[in-house]
Amino acid sequence: MALRTGDHGQAATNGLKEKVLTLDTMNPCVRKVEYAVRGPIVLRALELEQELRQGVKKPFTEVIRANIGDAQAMGQTPITFLRQVLALCVHPDLLNSPDFPDDAKRRAERILQACGGHSLGAYSISSGTQLIREDVARYIERRDGGIPADPNNIFLSTGASDAIVTLLKLLVAGEGRTRTGVLIPIPQYPLYSAALAELSAVQVDYYLDEERAWALDVAELRRALLQARDHCRPRALCIINPGNPTGQVQTRECIEAVIRFAFEEGLFLLADEVYQDNVYAEGSQFHSFKKVLTEMGPPYAARQELASFHSVSKGYMGECGFRGGYVELVNMDAAVQQQMQKLRSVRLCPPTPGQVLLDVAVSPPAPSDPSFAQFQAEKRAVLAELAAKAKLTEQVFNETPGIRCNPVQGAMYSFPRVQLPPRAVQRAQELGLAPDMFFCLRLLEETGICVVPGSGFGQREGTYHFRMTILPPMEKLRPLLETLSQFHAKFTREYS
Amino acid sequence: MALRTGDHGQAATNGLKEKVLTLDTMNPCVRKVEYAVRGPIVLRALELEQELRQGVKKPFTEVIRANIGDAQAMGQTPITFLRQVLALCVHPDLLNSPDFPDDAKRRAERILQACGGHSLGAYSISSGTQLIREDVARYIERRDGGIPADPNNIFLSTGASDAIVTLLKLLVAGEGRTRTGVLIPIPQYPLYSAALAELSAVQVDYYLDEERAWALDVAELRRALLQARDHCRPRALCIINPGNPTGQVQTRECIEAVIRFAFEEGLFLLADEVYQDNVYAEGSQFHSFKKVLTEMGPPYAARQELASFHSVSKGYMGECGFRGGYVELVNMDAAVQQQMQKLRSVRLCPPTPGQVLLDVAVSPPAPSDPSFAQFQAEKRAVLAELAAKAKLTEQVFNETPGIRCNPVQGAMYSFPRVQLPPRAVQRAQELGLAPDMFFCLRLLEETGICVVPGSGFGQREGTYHFRMTILPPMEKLRPLLETLSQFHAKFTREYS
Q1: Residue B39: pLDDT band by 50, 70, 90 thresholds?
Q2: Most CB atoms closer than 10 Å: which of B61, B127, B143, B352?
């Protein structure tokens, strides 16, 4: 090879060849991405688990991963009917087995009929199996009291995250002061900040009101929007309802005010409604943005753009690993929707098993079906236990001096505020850590409890929180909460 | 709401509110994305299918979708053992069933032990279940004659596409003349052009040599690289071997030359090896880039950066819908690999059913296992039939005047060159269509055969091709090939 050009070639001949891909040369947007839910604290938790397996002595016998909303990892049993239908679809020889109820078989046959070559191993169309999108549309209609839903506006996805990122991707444009800004709640689920960093869009923070149970206040939305317009072009508003990590459930009045605001300010609404089945508090009720928007009538109903996301990972299903979800688009420009279809087609299709589970979740057994009673009993048991755990969590935290926890009205997390003594804050700063990260790391090292510091979700300056799932089984949750309370007391004494 | 700012707010008060998201305001990079494999011709095929169902008379009774490598949609039967293990994992009650062989049960139990809460419904760690990555590493070691593979360098993915896009995303940086350029073969699989458009990276075309059975020529790589350096910074080289859509299988000598070239020119190698099990031609053999690189010794072995991709969608498995795959990283900078881990964690985890199928595919039954004989027989039958279909396709096309087809040495496609009469080319231009798109659309309308025009993959100016899968069952493939030949003759007469 006689002729070489470029620095790399030259370096090679000198034996000094550097890597092509280094921290300095890689995508700078990717470097900015952070995702606390699986961040450094979770990596440390994994190490601790390995050390325990290797017999290293610790002040605890088990790491409890309360960092992530992963119900089945915490021992929640899958809903039998979901798994029966999926097993039949995966291995249709079982359609002849006497061990499966007839309605599960009928359901599996119906889904397989809709698959290419009658097999889950075929790609579906990119927006998801037509039949399943029709079932999703009917689910939405039932949920929303008969307001029509069009299967052509429904795109199945690889979990809700996949669909959320697709929508954000479509929305990002411009440079410098015309760059797309996206309003997100603080505290937020860090998928939003991560995706915006990766897409080099501008994150516009609006703060939820901790003093009013994490309520969303339109005056604060307006403050955030007006400030943001100085340096970017805000074009979308993200709402998480029920809230993650905050657990609040929005009132209908609040949703109406948000819709009016979005309409008047020209913002595309992204409604993350993956916890729509997870509402526990008395007096709280889930209202979908689609329903409220439609019932508000003109000019909102026919014009306000909205994307609503749902998933099989949460609810009573907890089928995180299967990565099933969908987005419903409302009032999206038809040409843009075609562009979205094209973009999705590059990734071929969402995983078919997740599509199957979604189908069963959106069209559960009817009262006349043999599986009805068991399905309902299992679903109710999961939701009742979650409600009890939500209540217990709030109660124990609020009995602890220095910890204050808003009601966990919905979703799967508590996000209590913790007082940290000034000397602990100072010590954290010396270590180059956020104060709540310091607290959570110490908690993990001393008790094996893995929770995520509030700084990973965002919080008002000078306040400290952590996110803890309410998912551990009752017999573990109670001692866990007590251990946590005692640790906070000890930590406070140590640094006072 | 008294005070409003911004154009949108103003427009709203005038009753002229426009959509936030339109073709003009959406992400311009997404607009540039094209993906022919599921492009306009496939949308038309879907319409035709619907018309047939509605009883509309057509000159054919069935649309044959030979546009996409989707084996099971074409009737290929899933490998029994893969589905047995997955069904057991999905619905562990079946572990007590007498209808499943012991080795399938042992396998399922082993996988479930490695899952959070012993359930597929839990998230796995973001890089994929540790046990499965270990099994993948052992597979690679066997494949490569004992060269070590490290599970920590293996990331499971949602099909190979997901991992390919992740690697490209890491590589993209710079602006204007320093923007990352990526060399891709022409013809290419359009995931590459689509991802590069979306990421706003520079696509650098190198042409495969149709006259030499689509061989890759290093002189052409060098030409492409030198030209590209005028306007971008080429940093990666993509190879598809066995080739898609071209079906060639690279020789060891060719791979060595490519590795030397990449090393000397400072290019990160991306080896798309998803068809590694699909090699049919006598004298052809799959050589992995990893193996060749390692056996070349210093300075290449310890330094050349490489990512190799594989999938459960192709091979003898054909499990496209489950979206399982992996990438093995070789010589990647450790800090960048951590960044990749972080980036992957935002999407939580690859779907667990795809991980299970991958696990079985990389660790098939051993000779002493009860399922060994059946597994081997099924695998051999699939691959033997694909080999026969590859041969038949090549043969029939080459007997057709005006069509010339290189040997289908591997993969799942033929990419024949078609002569189109000048008047057909002219007619296409009048219609604003690429000439081969015009040909393929007419073919679809008149015969129901759906193939993808060569312009969707790239081809030398003035040449015309189409990509057709070799997947239709033998009893359909032969008449399909004959219909296609006859149509070409008729089309040629019509426009002569």
Answers
A1: confident
A2: B352
Copy the structure tokens of residue A115.
Answer: 């698959």
Instruction: Establish whether the linkage from the previous residue to A245 is cis, with ω within 30° of 0.
Output: yes
pLDDT per residue over A105-151, tens digit each?
Answer: 999 999 999 999 999 999 999 999 999 999 999 999 999 999 999 99
- Residue B149's alpha-carbon distances to A58, A471, A474, B111, in angstroms, are 33, 37, 42, 20
**Closest to B22 measured CA to CA, from A346, A301, A236, A339:** A339
- Degrees, nearest 5: CA angle A353-A355-A359: 115
CB contact under 8 A, B87 and A84: no
* Radius of gyration (C-alpha) of chain A in whole angstroms: 24
B195 to A26: CB separation less than 8 angstroms, yes or no: no
Chain A: residue whose CA lies nearest to B169: A27
Instruction: Check if the beta carbon of residue A225 is closer than 8 Å to that of residue A183.
Output: yes
β-pair type (B452-453, A449-450)? unpaired
Q: Which residues of chain A have pLDDT under 70?
A: 1-17
Domains observed in chain B: 31-75+375-494 (3.90.1150.10), 123-362 (3.40.640.10)
Of B319, B326, B357, nearest to B104 by C-alpha is B357
User: Which of A121, A264, A347 has its CB closest to that of B321?
Assistant: A121
Nearest to A200 by CA among B200, B179, B177: B200
Residue A3: what pLDDT? 38
ipTM over 0.90: yes
- CA distance, residue A238 to nearest chain B CA (Å): 14
pLDDT tens digits, residue range B187-227? 999 999 999 999 999 999 999 999 999 999 999 999 999 99
Instruction: Inspect the interface and report whether the beta carbons of B26 and A343 lie closer than 8 Å.
Output: no
Contacts of A322 in chain B (CB under 8 A): 120-121, 351-353
> Beta strands B306-311 and B268-272: pairing type?
parallel
- A267 with A230: CB under 8 angstroms? no
* Distance from the Cα of residue A376 to its chain's centroid: 25
Which tens digits make up the pLDDT trace of A283-336? 999 999 999 999 999 999 999 999 999 999 999 999 999 999 999 999 999 999
**Residue A210 CB partners (closer than 8 Å, separation 6+):** A406, A417, A460, A463
Question: What backbone phi and psi angles, to 5 degrees, belong to A181?
Answer: -105, 145
> Do the bridges between strand A325-330 and strand A154-157 make them parallel or antiparallel, or are there none, so unpaired?
antiparallel
pLDDT of residue A393: 95
